[in-house]
Amino acid sequence: MTQAQLAQGISPLLAVRDVSVVFGGIVALNGVSFDMHKGQILGLIGPNGAGKTTLFNCLSRLYQPSSGDILMDGASILTRPPHRIAEIGIGRTFQNVALFPNLSVMDNVRVGTHARTSSDIISDSLRLAWIRRSESSINKKVHEILAYLDLEDVAHTTVSGLPFGTQKRVELARALAADPKILLLDEPAGGLNHEEVHVLGDLIRRIRDERGMTVLLVEHHMGLVMSIADHVVALNFGKKLAEGTPAQVQVNPDVITAYLGSKDQ
Ligand SMILES: Nc1ncnc2c1ncn2[C@@H]1O[C@H](COP(=O)(O)OP(=O)(O)OP(=O)(O)O)[C@@H](O)[C@H]1O
């Protein structure tokens, strides 16, 4: 999304407003604010301990901010319990993959669709008409996502037997199956080789371009962030250090200083 489009006054899909998180005496986040617009890929960067994971956990409702607010389509998400985030349109993946290892790829993706559907044991056991209808639409959805992410060949394979890169794709499929408005990706490049990171970058961009997805990624892999993000927010010591296009953030003197000493970034 271009700055010109953003300047048209479109209200943000997600607004982080003055969010602070304090753990005991440690201020993990200190008054962080930024907006995310529909269709944007936003990269959240910062050196170790900057507060990225803390903010990610606030967005996915695992942590409750000490102060501030997070609004989605203008309404606070902080009043919603963590297990309802899929219903409000937030999907996520995990740094170390959190799938059901003994289930097939297809069943793991099917779990994602249930995050947005409702049924109960009585309706299920009576196999009421609306349950059958919803089962058939779930199957259709699962097959569509598997085909989209090129996972059809392994649809019936148990997840634990798959390479890590494929497992990460399955996680992405599971998150997409819930039809999120925003996809939160926690270090998606972690544990992937150079070629896999390249493929992942193309995939994230495709998901945005073809499915209109809005993506927030927390990532240490600067090459990936700078090549796919439209907008970058840099944190350091719990505060927002800079934000802007990748090109702007890359040359920001405060960002350069924050990363000095960690040459592996
Ligand atoms: N559960 C917790 N209890 C106490 N302190 C915490 C907790 N989680 C994070 N912190 C502290 O909050 C600060 C921010 O940590 P956070 O994990 O959010 O940073 P990060 O940018 O994700 O770092 P990394 O890149 O190393 O994962 C750090 O000082 C960390 O030690």
From TrEMBL:
<protein>
    <submittedName>
        <fullName>ABC transporter ATP-binding protein</fullName>
    </submittedName>
</protein>
<dbReference type="GO" id="GO:0005524">
    <property type="term" value="F:ATP binding"/>
</dbReference>
<dbReference type="InterPro" id="IPR051120">
    <property type="entry name" value="ABC_AA/LPS_Transport"/>
</dbReference>
<feature type="domain" description="ABC transporter">
    <location>
        <begin position="14"/>
        <end position="262"/>
    </location>
</feature>
<comment type="function">
    <text>Involved in beta-(1--&gt;2)glucan export. Transmembrane domains (TMD) form a pore in the inner membrane and the ATP-binding domain (NBD) is responsible for energy generation.</text>
</comment>
<keyword id="KW-0813">Transport</keyword>
<dbReference type="InterPro" id="IPR027417">
    <property type="entry name" value="P-loop_NTPase"/>
</dbReference>
<dbReference type="Pfam" id="PF00005">
    <property type="entry name" value="ABC_tran"/>
</dbReference>
<dbReference type="InterPro" id="IPR032823">
    <property type="entry name" value="BCA_ABC_TP_C"/>
</dbReference>
<keyword id="KW-0067">ATP-binding</keyword>
<dbReference type="GO" id="GO:0016887">
    <property type="term" value="F:ATP hydrolysis activity"/>
</dbReference>
<dbReference type="Pfam" id="PF12399">
    <property type="entry name" value="BCA_ABC_TP_C"/>
</dbReference>
<dbReference type="GO" id="GO:0005886">
    <property type="term" value="C:plasma membrane"/>
</dbReference>
<keyword id="KW-0547">Nucleotide-binding</keyword>
<dbReference type="InterPro" id="IPR003593">
    <property type="entry name" value="AAA+_ATPase"/>
</dbReference>
<dbReference type="InterPro" id="IPR003439">
    <property type="entry name" value="ABC_transporter-like_ATP-bd"/>
</dbReference>
